[in-house]
Amino acid sequence: MTLASWMDESQTFSPDAKMAKHTPFFEPIINTFNDGGYNPSVSYHYNPNVASYHYGVRHPMKPFRLMLTDHLVSGYKLHEQMDLYETRRATKEELLSFHSADYIDFLKRITPENSAKFANDLKKFNIGDDCPVFDGIYDYCQYYAGASLDASRKLISGMSDIAINWSGGLHHAKKDEPSGFCYVNDIVMAILNLLRVHPRVLYIDIDLHHGDGVQEAFYLTDRVMTVSFHKYDGAFFPGTGNYEEVGVGKGKHFALNVPLQDGIDDESYIRLFKSIMEPVITKFRPTAIIQQCGADSLGGDRLGVFNLNIRAHGECVKFIKSFGIPMLCVGGGGYTPRNVSRLWCYETSVMTNVELNSKLPETPYKSWFEPDYSLHPKLGDRFENKNSKKYLEDLRIQLLENLRYLNQAPSVQMQEIPPDIQNITDDDEAKIVERLKRESKIDKYRDEERYYINKKDESRRGELLD
């Protein structure tokens, strides 16, 4: 059996149980032509608590998809290829870096039990069917925002070349209200953190829906360029994202929108994506990238209208990775949990330079992936492709025309990096210092104890040791 044949499901050779037990689930990809030999340091940021929250029985957003993703990632042993970080919650001060104080205070106080007392606030803050009140809503926001902030700090410090937070990517949330299942905008907070060090940040959104919350936050600046590929017909949520939305004032031409029709297929999407993103990166010259990898653009999604397969979606991530620019990858939409977890597991393998066996490994939740138990089920051809070649070519020409106005990458005055780059409060820092002092004393005591034991062992019989 050849080195790669174990990944080919068409092989007639069937290994016995003993051989299967020791067969790896992935094969390293080293110095491939497409990746240019780029072998990044990858970190995986997660908190298992975030998967335990529940929007409601009939609500399409299912946070437990993150648990399925983590199990697939560990089942394939991808955790061995990354640095793993169990993240802390975002502090209130970190949430206030973008959101208004009265909105954050509302999220902190509201519960299903006391919501009747907040009737006016529910209307004011756009709480309803899309964004319901559920148990632990504020803690949930802290967890997924904290993971994106932690990932951004690892990029800033140089500890990671690529940082992954699949619990993040909630791109619709606005400064004063939730929107589209999103309560706080972790992407905006991560970008604000990156801007403390990076002169230019590129945001790329391949979710089914327009990344309106991120675009709105940076619509007036040239230091952040937002690019969103999404379904648009003027009525589809959130109703924004036409190619005419290009930014205002200093930010004019630093917002790029790619409105697509129902049923776009793999080949059309990949060709359009690459033909637009290469000149964007060449002209804007970002020093950091955030890519939102919403899985609702896959075919077969509960709310989706595209025909993309998992490999095509991952090809977009692979293409951006090939530029070798520090990158934060976050999740987003995706409402068929088994396909969401397949996609994000596959894209984790793309970023760690390994090729996965298409047959899923044994996990406690393998029954979710029946009947095929495959990483790459056929997802396309559900919708008619309404994106004609002429439409896509005219759109490409229009978008490249918008890019023509970016004559050069905007510069920014260099300043001393803020000393509080980890965004730790004085109280937290004092606690950390005190803990380190205690640990230092304990280590010193243990060193002395080990020294005494070693000397005693080395002494001859009858020899006393003071």
UniProtKB/TrEMBL annotation:
UniProt protein name: Histone deacetylase
Residues given in the record as a divalent metal cation binding sites: D207, H209, D296
Catalysed reactions listed for this entry: N(6)-acetyl-L-lysyl-[histone] + H2O = L-lysyl-[histone] + acetate
Family, per entry: Belongs to the histone deacetylase family. HD Type 1 subfamily.
Predominant location: nucleus
SUPFAM superfamilies noted in UniProt: Arginase/deacetylase
Organism the protein comes from: Pichia kudriavzevii (Yeast)
GO molecular function: histone deacetylase activity, hydrolytic mechanism; metal ion binding
